[in-house]
Amino acid sequence: MGGTGHPSGQLFVLCRCSICVVNISQLLIQTGVTFIAAALGAFLASSLARRTERFKHRQQLQSSAYADLLKGVAKIARAQGDATTSNESVALQEEREGRLIFTDARSRIAIHGSSDVLRAAAKYIDLGAQNITPEGMQAFTEMCALMREESIDERAAFKDIHTLLFG
Question: Which pTM value belongs to this model?
Answer without folding.
Answer: 0.72
